[in-house]
From TrEMBL:
Gene3D superfamilies: Multidrug efflux transporter AcrB pore domain, Multidrug efflux transporter AcrB transmembrane domain. It comes from marine sediment metagenome. InterPro entries: Acrflvin-R. One of its GO terms (cellular component) is plasma membrane. This is SSD domain-containing protein.
């Protein structure tokens, strides 16, 4: 399926395979466990396989389709996000579809043909297992008897999750700690190239004097380039690359704050910092 969809083995498709690894066995476990339950009740192999697969078939199909419905739309997203996650979304969807087909066809057939002829023995139960089962039964009974309280608790937990999520922040991709950052200086329009070069050189010397900086590279003015962006080029714009000796984010933030504070005294000079 991956070959037919034009998906190669890359970081995103391998990530999708790794993500689907745990989901692949879920359907088979549910079906096989239900077949085993019917065998424990006295049904023969074929009857237990038919009843077990039929009883949970609808639930297994519904749960798998809901999971596929989460990932599959990512394959149709436009822009950079669609290009990044298309391979992963399709890989997960393909893996889940195949696991569903195996769970409702191959597993019941193999269980009816090669299962144990004798009834399985009841597994032993430990003290912890008995305590957990009884505690869960009491908790479930209390939740079902107090439906309003259960719904209110779930709503409060959902509201708390939304509040926490808003404080985390969102971004398409996390910034990589590469131990370097870019600086763009933009003076007032009409500033001559010599003045822009002087401002950039002063900032370069200040950055190079920091013991945590490895090297600094800068260029002033880019308006003569044919492919230059009119809004990000000109004799009043200078750029520099600062490489750190280590990838420590704390040290890099300290250097950025020092450079930002040193440029605030220059009237009309705007400074922006970004990761490469």
């Amino acid at each position: 399926l991956m070959g037919q969809a034009g998906i190669s083995l890359n970081i995103m498709s391998l990530g999708g395979i790794a993500l689907a690894t745990g989901l692949l066995v879920d359907n088979g476990i549910v079906v096989l466990e239900n077949i085993s339950r019917f065998r424990a009740e006295g049904d023969d192999l074929v009857s237990a396989a038919i009843k077990g697969a039929s009883e949970v078939g609808g639930a297994v199909i519904a749960s798998t389709l809901t999971t596929i419905a989460v990932f599959l739309p990512l394959a149709f997203v436009d822009g950079v996000a669609g290009q990044l996650f298309r391979d992963q979304a399709l890989t997960v969807a393909f893996a889940l579809a195949i696991s569903l087909a195996v769970a409702v066809t191959l597993i019941p057939m193999m269980a009816s043909a090669s299962g144990h002829k004798t009834l399985p023995r009841e597994p032993g139960s430990s003290r912890f297992g008995r305590w957990f089962a009884s505690s869960y039964a009491r908790l479930l009974d209390a939740a079902l008897r107090r439906k309003a309280m259960t719904l209110i608790t779930a709503a409060l937990m959902l509201a708390g999750a939304v509040v926490i999520l808003r404080g985390i922040g969102t971004e398409l991709l996390p910034e990589l700690e590469q131990g370097r950052f870019n600086v763009m200086l933009e003076a007032t329009p009409g500033t001559p190239l010599e003045e822009t070069d002087r401002l950039g050189s002063e900032l370069q010397r200040r950055a190079a004097a920091n013991p945590g900086v490895d090297y600094v590279y800068g260029v002033a003015g880019s308006g003569n380039r044919i492919d230059a962006n009119p809004t990000e080029s000109g004799e009043n714009i200078a750029r520099m690359l600062v490489a750190m000796k280590s990838s420590s984010s704390e040290l890099q933030d300290a250097v950025i704050n020092d450079l930002r504070n040193s440029t605030r005294a220059v009237a009309g000079l705007e400074t922006s910092f970004s990761a490469p």
